[in-house]
Amino acid sequence: MIRHIVMFKLKEFETSADKQAKMQEIKEKLEALINKIDVLHMIRVDFNVNPAETWDIILTTELNTLEDVNTYANHPEHVAVSKGIIGPVKADRACVDYEC
After folding, report:
1. Which of 20, 33, 64, 68 has the most CB atoms around it within 10 Å of its CB?
2. Which residues contact 56 (CB under 8 A, 6 or more apart)?
3. DSSP states of 18-64 as a string?
4. What global pTM score does this model have?
5. What are phi and psi of 66, to 5 degrees?
6. How does pLDDT run across 52-63, given as a tens digit for each residue?
7. Residue 23's closest CA among 49, 54, 56?
8. How many Cβ atoms sit within 10 Å of the Cβ of residue 63?
9. What pLDDT does 52 receive?
10. Residue 35 class from Cβ within 10 Å (0-12 exposed, 13-18 middle, 19+ buried)?
11. Phi, psi values for residue 70, rounded to 5°
């Protein structure tokens, strides 16, 4: 089993309410992928509550293999969320994949 973890730092927003609304949209769209991408066994999105830290969002997924991670990453439904919703507001991204 592979755990695929991605952290996102978002660009600045006009208000904290705008940022929270966008974060919630990202969470809902990513978590909905569980019903659209067969190789996903688990997907969860959480928000950082510590303003002293760099990252805003953490995505945790579980898949069988690194090949499945690639399938997930290139799936049209994931690409739509990644490029259409996250991309315009993403300042930075970090990722780790490990066996669990």
Report:
1. 68
2. 8, 9, 10, 19, 23, 47, 48
3. HHHHHHHHHHHHHHGGGGT-TT-SEEEEEE---TTSS--EEEEEEES
4. 0.96
5. -65, -30
6. 999 999 999 999
7. 56
8. 23
9. 95
10. exposed
11. -65, -40
Q: Which tokens go with 45?
A: 């999105």
Q: Please state the φ and ψ torsions of residue 24, each to the nearest 5 degrees.
A: -65, -40
3-class DSSP state for residue 9? strand
Max intra-chain CA distance, the chain:
40
- Adjacency order of strands within the sheet including 90-99: 42-47, 57-63, 2-10, 90-99
Q: What is the pLDDT of residue 38?
A: 98
Structure tokens at 48: 């950082």
Taking the C-alpha atoms of residue 99 and residue 4, their distance in angstroms, rounded to an integer, is 9
